[in-house]
Automatic annotation (TrEMBL):
Coiled coil start-end: none
PANTHER family, per database record: TRANSPORTER MFS SUPERFAMILY
UniProt GO molecular function: transmembrane transporter activity
Predominant place of localization: membrane
A Pfam match: MFS_1_like
Name recorded for this polypeptide: MFS transporter
Bilayer topology: Multi-pass membrane protein
Keywords for this protein: Cell membrane, Membrane, Transmembrane, Transmembrane helix, Transport
Major facilitator superfamily (MFS) profile domain span: 203-409
Chain ranges passing through the membrane: 12-37, 43-65, 77-96, 102-123, 135-157, 163-182, 203-229, 235-257, 269-287, 293-312, 333-351, 357-375
InterPro entries linked: MFS, MFS_assoc_dom, MFS_dom, MFS_trans_sf, MFS_YcaD-like, Sugar_transporter_CS
Record's subcellular location: Cell membrane
Lineage, top ranks: Bacteria, Pseudomonadati, Campylobacterota, Epsilonproteobacteria, Campylobacterales
GO CC, alphabetical: plasma membrane
Amino acid sequence: MTSKDRFSIIPISSLFFAIAFLAVGYGMILTFIGVYLKESDSSNIAIGVINAAFFLGAIGASIFSQKIIATVGHIRSFATFASVMIIGFLGHSLYFNEIFWAVLRLLSGFAYYGLLIILESWLNEKSTESHRGKILAVYTIIFYLATAIGQLILNIGEKESHIFFIMGSILVLFSIVFISMTKIKEPILQPFERYSLPKIFNIAPLALASSFIGGFFVGGFFTMIPVYIVENFNSIEIVSIFMTVALIGGLISQWPIGMLSDRLGRRKVIAYSSFFIAFVSVCFILAPYHESLFYLFGALLGFGIFCLYPLAVARANDIVDENKNILEISRTLLFAYGLGSFASPLIIGLGSYFFDHFIFLSFLILSLFLGFYSLSSERVADEDMSVFVNMPSVAGAEFPHLDPRQDNL
């Protein structure tokens, strides 16, 4: 690494440490909530509603949090959102009531995605055109690995619920320490832009569909698959290992899928990925439940579902021209991804009331639809294709600014 490379990374290391601690706490609590609710005999419908509230808060953050940040500044906003998130975590350990927990999840989702907006806008401010891709790659790797570590923490120590909520709060507090001590100049956030799903559908229908369905898969993965595992294995250890190997599979998939899509085109790779997810979903439904086999399917599932959103953004970049606002399109795709994450626990929670394997049945139906829809879409000429960019599984509203492809527009 040259001195120029070190100069681009070292001054923003505090941001990466903050991202890491947040992702560990986020991953641990988001998984544990479903496990705890299932062990407390809550219905899958109630679990779905409570988990959906988290993503409803995320949607709210993408619309309203930027005004708060622009008004009081990044550091104060970070401390505020982190405090709200900690209040949400600790509130879970004080009193168990499904409505109360849904409110806490709503606040936590708003706060967490507000924190992501702060961190991403800071990273974008400190990114140069030559280093933006490297910074985004580091962000992606840290996020996946830290979230995976959060899953492993579920196996550490006592199993009482308050332990995990306290640990999650401590992790968020660590992120405040790094941000409070930073000397990085605060950037200026751009005004909020309206999202137009119909407009983007007319421009990039396959990208929009892939974003929504990719969000559905990832939202279901984090919120309802832990519930499914508890129902079938009654083991938080299996939940922990399964989620970890799936996240590692998702991280590994970014590079080979990216290279393959640069060669074959997004349309074909979205279709192949979708049919692959359909195959894995059938395996979950039909295969005998041996732990080792279950972990293998988990890694394969993560390999498939976590690449759909990056493929969707790459597809959108392939087909837009200089007269289109790619930032607006990218933000709308991210919004659609959030809508899919929000809808997923609601639909899966309701459907699993009627069919035990509904989560994978829904994955099967949506992946088959996306696969055939992708094959029926228009092909993009090789000379018009952009370059695939690796992305984290969760992102805030400022994330499109980090995409190095924006520098070419």
